[in-house]
């Protein structure tokens, strides 16, 4: 009898975490490494949020809480959804979990049966397909091409839907491309979804506050209210409030789904960390000015990285609407040989040679379902970004 489960054989460890770990190991061994792999803001959690957490500890708010969130936080989340997204949810339509990741996992675990299909636009956040598989469903990828700035079209969505489609996962702005759907682009997708009542919409709005220029964020249930009853709108404080380590994510949706997700959570982790919940409450209800400051900072970094990468021979880097990633195409580098003698047969070889020869850590595109590309997370200092881009340029200049 095998000790490890069959389920484990179907999933793979997160490649983004693997790159970050390798970069950290090289750094610890004394190499001059610039990590552009991690998907988290490089600055600290705002002081008012930290203070709220300290107060919660001092006031003894350190016990179990309601499984899917304290009432104060649920109320604050309802207010956030109404104010920022025009969505009316009652507190019993809200669930809070240990990061956006657990929220998505709960939703899939609570709903997927063998044979159920989940449509995932590619390039996608690495965890979606593996979570679907863990939940017993079947991921169905729909690829957004470079020509369409990594977004999928209504015709592609229509063609992917079958009677077994249970969910359509929507993530805008996207990890890993930063691509954001405009209201009209999203409306064209929701028009398709209206025709298929068996399909539920799982909207992952994690990068809502990180949008640039005059781009306006929008979410499916807001764009098409007729989909409200079959949409789970998920979000979290990790990226917007620089709170990745605190592990708080949340969602709003129909009561029966929210209840089912709570049941999964009650038999796995129970409530998310009590102290983190009070910190998230302060994040959502306290001063919001730093959101604007961070946005400006990330926009400047995006512009720096896009302009520098577009000077590299063989690389084409579109300008994304949001998040803190760019997803350059490296078709022009494939088939060449690096200065260190490595044949660049695919994007994994590119990322590996880049790390070995220049100390710049990026994540290869195959991990996200579209090649040949790589993902840069520009959530690091301007100086490190400029130096990393200089090294990428010299690496590309050296390709023969
Ligand atoms: C698109 C997307 N959704 C969800 C998450 C998970 O966020 P959390 O850290 O809150 O679990 C991430 C984190 O990288 C993400 O990029």
From TrEMBL:
Keywords attached to this entry: Aminotransferase, Pyridoxal phosphate, Transferase
Domain annotation Aminotransferase class I/classII large: ranges: 32-392
Enzyme Commission designation: 2.6.1.-
Highest taxon above the source species: Bacteria
GO MF term (any one): transaminase activity
InterPro entries (UniProt xref): Aminotransferase_I/II_large (IPR004839), AspAT/PAT-like (IPR050596), NHTrfase_class1_PyrdxlP-BS (IPR004838), PyrdxlP-dep_Trfase (IPR015424), PyrdxlP-dep_Trfase_major (IPR015421), PyrdxlP-dep_Trfase_small (IPR015422)
Cofactor: pyridoxal 5'-phosphate
Transmembrane segments: none
Pfam families: Aminotran_1_2 (PF00155)
Catalytic activity annotation: L-aspartate + 2-oxoglutarate = oxaloacetate + L-glutamate
Enzyme class of the recorded protein, top EC level: transferase
Family to which this protein belongs: Belongs to the class-I pyridoxal-phosphate-dependent aminotransferase family.
Protein name per UniProt: Aminotransferase
């Amino acid at each position: 009898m095998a000790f490890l489960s069959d389920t484990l054989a179907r999933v793979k460890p997160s490649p983004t975490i693997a790159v970050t770990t390798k970069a950290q190991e090289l750094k610890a061994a004394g190499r001059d490494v610039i990590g552009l792999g991690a998907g988290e803001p490089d600055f600290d959690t705002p002081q008012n949020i930290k203070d709220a957490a300290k107060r919660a500890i001092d006031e003894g708010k350190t016990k179990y809480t309601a499984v899917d969130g304290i009432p104060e936080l649920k109320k604050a989340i309802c207010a956030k959804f109404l104010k920022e997204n025009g969505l009316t949810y009652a507190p019993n339509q809200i669930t809070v979990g240990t990061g956006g990741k657990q929220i998505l996992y709960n939703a899939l675990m609570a709903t997927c049966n063998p044979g159920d299909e989940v449509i995932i636009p590619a390039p996608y956040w690495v965890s979606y397909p593996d979570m679907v598989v863990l939940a017993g469903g079947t991921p169905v990828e729909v690829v957004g091409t470079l020509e369409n700035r990594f977004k999928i079209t209504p015709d592609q969505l229509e063609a992917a839907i079958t009677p077994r489609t249970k969910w359509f996962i929507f993530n805008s702005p996207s990890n890993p491309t930063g691509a954001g759907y405009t209201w009209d682009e999203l409306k064209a997708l929701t028009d398709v979804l209206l025709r298929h009542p068996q399909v539920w919409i799982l909207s992952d709005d994690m990068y809502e506050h990180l949008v640039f220029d005059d781009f306006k964020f929008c979410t499916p249930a807001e764009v098409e209210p007729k989909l409200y009853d079959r949409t789970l709108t998920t979000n979290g404080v990790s990226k917007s409030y620089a709170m990745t380590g605190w592990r708080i994510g949340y969602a709003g949706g129909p009561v029966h789904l929210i209840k089912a997700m709570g049941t999964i959570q009650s038999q796995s982790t129970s409530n998310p960390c009590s102290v983190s919940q009070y910190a998230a409450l302060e994040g959502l209800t306290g001063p919001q000015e730093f959101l604007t400051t961070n946005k400006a900072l990330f926009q400047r970094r995006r512009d720096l990285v896009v302009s520098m990468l577009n000077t590299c021979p063989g690389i084409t880097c579109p300008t994304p609407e949001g998040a803190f990633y760019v997803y350059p195409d490296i078709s022009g580098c494939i088939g060449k040989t690096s200065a260190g003698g490595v044949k660049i047969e695919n994007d994994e070889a590119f990322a590996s040679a880049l790390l070995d020869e220049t100390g710049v850590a990026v994540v290869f595109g195959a991990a996200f379902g579209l090649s040949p590309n790589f993902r840069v997370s520009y959530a690091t200092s301007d100086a490190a970004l400029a130096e990393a881009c200089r090294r990428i340029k010299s690496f590309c200049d050296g390709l023969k």
